[in-house]
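Quick one, tokens below. Sequence please?
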């Protein structure tokens, strides 16, 4: 892909039987039949300024998922649909809870208090 300067975000989930992970007590997985916790998922997001819209960003995401289901039971196309719906939901929530309520979260004040940091971030994302 056409990658430009941007921000790299790494995410990883706790192992299934983790107990405590990153100073957080992870509840035990449900023992109900058919319930399964995905363990130790990893995601890499690369966020960069859009080339087509000044106030937009482009996002490239790569993820690994350990899903104990045979491919004949969950075809890859159906799995892609499920993942696309999850991403769509996450992006809608991001817009509704962050972008649309940006002024309510105190970001403008934080940007004014730490101008050097935010100028550095702006410089990387617009390089």
């Amino acid at each position: 892909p056409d990658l430009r300067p941007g921000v790299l975000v790494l995410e990883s989930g706790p192992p299934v039987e983790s107990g405590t992970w990153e100073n957080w007590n992870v509840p035990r997985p449900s023992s109900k039949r058919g319930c399964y916790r995905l363990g130790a998922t990893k995601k890499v997001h690369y966020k960069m300024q859009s080339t087509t819209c000044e106030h937009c960003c482009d996002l490239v995401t790569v993820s690994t998922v350990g899903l104990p289901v045979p491919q004949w039971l969950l075809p890859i196309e159906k799995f892609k649909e499920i993942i696309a719906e999850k991403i769509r939901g996450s992006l809608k929530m991001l817009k509704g809870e962050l972008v649309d309520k940006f002024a309510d979260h105190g970001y403008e004040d934080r940007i004014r208090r730490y101008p050097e940091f935010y100028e550095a971030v702006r410089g990387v994302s617009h390089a």
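The helical segments are 76-99, 107-113, 115-125. The chain has a mean pLDDT of 82.
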